[in-house]
Specification:
This protein folds into 2 domains: 32 residues; 50 residues. It is elongated, with a radius of gyration of 17 Å. The chain contains 5 helices and no strands. The longest helix is centred in the N-terminal third of the chain and has 14 residues.
Length: 84
């Protein structure tokens, strides 16, 4: 797990990460960037690179595959692949 459990790593919670992350982004002039922005960008880049939606779904921990379908439009169609 990326964020340690309270009982095993005292003082480091998800909120602490978000707070520090927000401060760094603000300092860099990237107020609009959130951890979710990074997660979405990661998934989008995987889809563009041709990684299967099934793998993306598993890596992101989506419990419902339809959640991952929002990235489907980023994948090349068979016709586009044949043009390469």
């Amino acid at each position: 797990m990326f964020f340690p459990d309270r009982t095993t790593y005292e003082g480091f919670y998800r909120y602490d990460f978000k707070k520090g992350f927000a401060a760094v982004c603000k300092e860099a002039g990237l107020d609009w960037v959130t951890p979710h922005t990074l997660r979405h960008t990661f998934a989008s880049q995987l889809a563009i690179a041709g990684v299967s939606l099934y793998k993306i779904s598993k890596w992101l921990g989506h419990s419902n595959f339809s959640t991952t379908q929002i990235y489907a439009h980023l994948q090349a169609s068979d016709e586009e692949i044949n043009l390469i």
